[in-house]
Amino acid sequence: MHVADFVSGSLAGACGLAVGYPLDTVKVRIQTQRQFTGIWQCVATTFSKEGVHGFFKGMALPMTTISITSSVAFGTYRNCLQCLKQARGTVHVPSTKPEIFLSGLVGGITQVLFVAPGDIVKVRLQCQTESMRRGSKPKYRGPVHCLLSILKEEGPRGLYRGALPLALRDGPGFGMYFLTYNTICELLSESRTEKPAWSAVMLAGGFAGTVAWSMSTPMDVIKARLQVDGSRETRRYRGLVHCIAETTRTEGAGVFFRSLGINCLRAFPVNLVVFVTYELLTGLLQAKPDSADTPRVGLE
């Protein structure tokens, strides 16, 4: 079992969360609220009404749980990759592209069980535009209050509202993420068996995040809408399919790509930081390389 990947993944995920959280808040608001028509308009409105604090709403719980979710994603990916190589009897041979994608897919879906409750709390707090400093009274006073309110009003199932589109986002997203990282590292390295240079790690990490979020954005929009649906007014959507159909009917198909620009803008620096942190920590924790594969990290 690759224990180093669990440890390195948790710390790398926390670093990535800290770097990208302000833009993540802007992304969620653009996806779920019609009053925000673009990136800069959302940034300006949020800052003028809520100050800098408005960009970090709901960050406490994800920062607390990121070590668990990142460890599950990274550890599942690496150990699944190792199992697939053992199954074909080629442990010391670099993994194939289908193995990399499949292992990422499994890792992405597995971590949904742990990330979903914290994610819905994060999204609902990010969508609260009321500011205490202006005398407004927001529905949720903080992460713990939001968590308890969801349990009281919607039951345990409420914490997993939006889990299906989350799995449909993270499964293929993680698979494509790891596959892109591997491919770029191979192109920038002289051989498949050598570790990539730091410049290659940064470039591959940034582009891997951008590619993954490009294909994950439509399902990310559906996830966010289902998570905030019914928190303030009557519930609009009956489920995943109805949300897609209703959103397309009322706002057009273009709404699924409204946050594509900010997702890509956020993905490059965030995953650059995550990959560098992960590679550095894994190198320190591992006494010697245990396979021909370069370490991988997860989609943030």
TrEMBL record:
Q: How does it sit in the membrane?
A: Multi-pass membrane protein
| Cited Pfam families | Mito_carr
The record, for InterPro entries, names: MCP, MCP_dom_sf, MCP_transmembrane, Mitochondrial_Carrier
Origin, by domain of life?
Eukaryota
Where in or outside the cell? Mitochondrion inner membrane
Does this UniProt record's set of keywords contain Ribosomal protein?
A: no
GO CC annotation: mitochondrial inner membrane
Write out the entry's keywords from A to Z: Membrane, Mitochondrion, Mitochondrion inner membrane, Repeat, Transmembrane, Transmembrane helix, Transport
An MF annotation (GO) of this entry: transmembrane transporter activity
Solcar repeats (start-end): 1-83, 98-187, 196-284
- In the UniProt record, does the keyword Membrane occur? yes
| Alphabetized PANTHER family for the sequence | MITOCHONDRIAL BASIC AMINO ACIDS TRANSPORTER-RELATED, SOLUTE CARRIER FAMILY 25 MEMBER 47
- Tell me the protein family, please: Belongs to the mitochondrial carrier (TC 2.A.29) family.
User: What protein am I looking at?
Assistant: Solute carrier family 25 member 47a
**Source organism of the structure:** Hippocampus comes
